């Protein structure tokens, strides 16, 4: 089922949205039928379903799987050259490398030519949705900073690359709406330049030259946009000098990139160079985005999920511009869009489009102990009285359909794709239902499953860590420090092992962290520990099987170096998200080499069984009140 959308036609596109959301169930039933019929002869489905191509048999006989289950099939196609018919009725055109890993390697997801058109449909639909909410976007340009990543070939000759690289290199991208009218400041050649430094420099140069026309700026994820700002901090003088002289630095050696830039950068512009010089040379970079691109109406970057922690930094640089998270997607499948793009980051919900795939939802709930320990947690950027999930208990392992999900309930997303060969596949994302648009549910992204730190029997999820760090950073924010990045690892090189957090801090106005007060930082360590769960605190205080938590403050740029490392290992710049827990020895080594100061927790966190129960019941009351 391939639906098309004319991005020029706001009214027609909105009617389409009405139809898709009103008839969500009908579309989902059609999608499942089509997937089963089309793929009935694949080795995978035939072995499970035979002739029983109906929903009941599908749910009874096709197991819910994760990547490790489908990996052998993917490897047979990728490495042994076996036919795509193992899993898909259509030829696998390439493999998409995801930011998730399996055995230290990026996961590889099959895709087909038809899938590309489905993604294009979603991108096209975003255009009228945005135009409906923000007037006059057709009166200027978009500065989208987009990057590709190099690709590899599998032994059977398939190309393996990140999903966005695949899309940017496709005809669908080159022919994207309005591209022929030069409404994007980055020429395609600068996006398609495989040297990410040259690509970044050229895209920023083109964006600065066309600053008066820019109506929106963005990147895919918040982290990529902030990386561009950091790059600008390092290169603005050289960019200014290029603008002043009308020349392009010699180190831009990619010929097509060079030619494309020179077609825009035709002559010296003294006035512009002076203006950028004075803005970038100012003591503080607060509001720099608005100052450099004064007509910008919003920043188009995903700030939900693990990206939420960048919101304060983005707000610092943006000068109060709205942050717009437009879509929710993955290498496996593109899922849905945000129908209220101007909503606050904390209110962002995504409506899954019922023609993108067949969706099922596995209800998940916190176990009792975790319910009792409800604490406020930063889920979508704002601190909400919500319990982010720590460890999910499947409620009977039974899935519900798209239109059957319940308001306020948490679910794990299960997807069955048209042609990518994924049947009842656990994406690994936990979503919460926040409302309905017609009959289509809208979801808040909560977190990815199973990202844990563990020394003993403690299990700390990404959500737990985010919660604890959010609490601790409140101690330093009033002093003018911004926590711009963090990650962690379980240091077990000594006994007992302990949690190590790497923090990159920024002092408003400059990057001087020499004034950091030891006692405040020790309090931060303590606050993190106090905010971690009961098991952790018991192991730390009573059992002493976990040592005092340590915060290592790293110098400015350390997390860029970390990203460079992961990119060199196969991650894509666009899709890169700072891992909140790192295991790679090399990555830890990189951060350790950039540590400027280190602080340990000097007192045990609170732990007492009797008082704990009392404290928990107080929290439970607060939790219930918060929800009512
Ligand atoms: P990848 O396959 O590497 O592109 O990563 C896909 C994953 O990124 C998804 O499964 C989510 O965990 C995360 N992701 C994608 N879009 C969003 C979004 N809008 N908000 C939060 N997380 C997202």
TrEMBL record:
<feature type="domain" description="GH3 C-terminal">
    <location>
        <begin position="464"/>
        <end position="585"/>
    </location>
</feature>
<protein>
    <recommendedName>
        <fullName>Indole-3-acetic acid-amido synthetase GH3.17-like</fullName>
    </recommendedName>
</protein>
<dbReference type="InterPro" id="IPR055377">
    <property type="entry name" value="GH3_M"/>
</dbReference>
<feature type="domain" description="GH3 middle">
    <location>
        <begin position="350"/>
        <end position="448"/>
    </location>
</feature>
<dbReference type="GO" id="GO:0016881">
    <property type="term" value="F:acid-amino acid ligase activity"/>
</dbReference>
<dbReference type="InterPro" id="IPR055378">
    <property type="entry name" value="GH3_C"/>
</dbReference>
<keyword id="KW-0436">Ligase</keyword>
<dbReference type="InterPro" id="IPR004993">
    <property type="entry name" value="GH3"/>
</dbReference>
<dbReference type="Pfam" id="PF03321">
    <property type="entry name" value="GH3"/>
</dbReference>
<dbReference type="GO" id="GO:0005737">
    <property type="term" value="C:cytoplasm"/>
</dbReference>
<comment type="similarity">
    <text>Belongs to the IAA-amido conjugating enzyme family.</text>
</comment>
<dbReference type="Pfam" id="PF23572">
    <property type="entry name" value="GH3_C"/>
</dbReference>
<dbReference type="Pfam" id="PF23571">
    <property type="entry name" value="GH3_M"/>
</dbReference>
């Amino acid at each position: 089922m391939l639906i098309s959308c004319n991005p020029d036609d706001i009214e027609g596109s909105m009617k389409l949205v009405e139809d898709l959301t009103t008839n969500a169930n009908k579309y989902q039933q059609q999608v499942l039928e089509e997937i089963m019929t089309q793929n009935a002869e694949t080795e995978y489905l035939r072995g499970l379903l035979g002739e029983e191509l109906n929903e009941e048999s599908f749910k009874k006989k096709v197991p819910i799987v994760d990547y490790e289950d489908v990996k052998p099939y993917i490897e047979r196609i990728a490495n042994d050259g076996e036919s795509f018919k193992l899993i898909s009725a259509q030829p696998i055109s390439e493999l998409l490398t995801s930011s998730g890993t399996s055995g230290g390697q990026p996961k590889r997801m099959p895709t087909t030519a038809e899938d590309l058109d489905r993604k294009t449909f979603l991108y096209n639909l975003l255009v009228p949705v945005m135009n409906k909410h923000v007037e006059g976007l057709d009166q200027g340009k978009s500065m989208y900073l987009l990057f590709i990543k190099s690709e590899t070939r599998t032994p059977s000759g398939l190309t393996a690359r990140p999903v966005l690289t695949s899309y940017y290199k496709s005809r669908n991208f080159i022919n994207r709406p309005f591209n022929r009218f030069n409404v994007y400041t980055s020429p395609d050649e600068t996006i398609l330049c495989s040297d990410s430094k040259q690509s970044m420099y050229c895209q920023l140069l083109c964006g600065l030259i066309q600053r008066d026309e820019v109506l929106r700026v963005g990147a895919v994820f918040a982290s990529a946009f902030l990386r561009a700002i950091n790059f600008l901090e390092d290169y603005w003088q050289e960019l200014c000098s290029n603008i002043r002289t009308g020349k392009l630095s010699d180190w831009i050696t990619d010929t097509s990139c060079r030619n494309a830039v020179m077609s825009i950068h035709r002559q010296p512009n003294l006035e512009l160079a002076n203006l950028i010089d004075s803005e970038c040379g100012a003591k503080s970079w607060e509001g720099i985005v608005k100052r450099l691109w004064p007509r910008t109406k919003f920043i188009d970057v995903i700030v939900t999920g693990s990206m939420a922690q960048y919101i304060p930094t983005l707000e610092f640089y943006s000068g109060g511009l709205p942050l717009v998270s437009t879509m929710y997607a993955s290498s496996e499948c593109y899922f849905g869009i945000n129908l209220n793009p101007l909503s606050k980051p904390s209110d962002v919900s995504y409506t899954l489009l019922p023609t993108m795939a067949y969706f099922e939802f596995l209800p998940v709930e916190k176990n009792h102990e975790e319910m009792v320990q409800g604490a406020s947690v930063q889920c979508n950027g704002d601190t909400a009285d919500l319990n982010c999930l720590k460890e999910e208990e499947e409620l009977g392992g039974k899935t519900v359909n798209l239109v059957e999900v319940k308001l306020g309930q948490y679910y794990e997303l299960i997807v069955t794709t048209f042609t990518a060969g994924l049947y009842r596949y656990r994406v690994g994302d936990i979503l919460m239902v926040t409302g309905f648009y017609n009959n289509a549910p809208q979801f808040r992204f909560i977190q990815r499953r199973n990202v844990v730190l563990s020394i003993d029997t403690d299990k700390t999820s990404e959500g737990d860590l985010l919660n604890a760090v959010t609490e601790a950073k409140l101690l330093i924010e009033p002093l003018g420090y911004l926590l711009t990045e963090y990650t962690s690892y379980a240091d077990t090189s000594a006994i007992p092992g302990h949690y190590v957090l790497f923090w990159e801090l920024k002092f408003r106005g400059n990057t001087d962290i020499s004034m950091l007060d030891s006692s405040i930082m020790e309090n931060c360590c303590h606050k993190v520990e106090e905010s971690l769960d009961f098991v952790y605190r018991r192991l730390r205080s009573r059992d002493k099987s976990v040592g005092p938590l340590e915060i290592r403050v790293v110098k400015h740029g350390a997390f860029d170096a970390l990203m460079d490392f992961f990119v060199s290992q196969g991650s894509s710049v666009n899709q890169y998200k700072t891992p909140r827990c790192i295991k790679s020895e090399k990555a830890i080594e990189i951060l350790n080499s950039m540590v400027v100061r280190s602080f340990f927790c000097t007192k045990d966190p609170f732990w007492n069984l009797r008082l704990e129960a009392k404290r928990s019941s107080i929290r439970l009351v607060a939790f219930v009140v918060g929800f009512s």
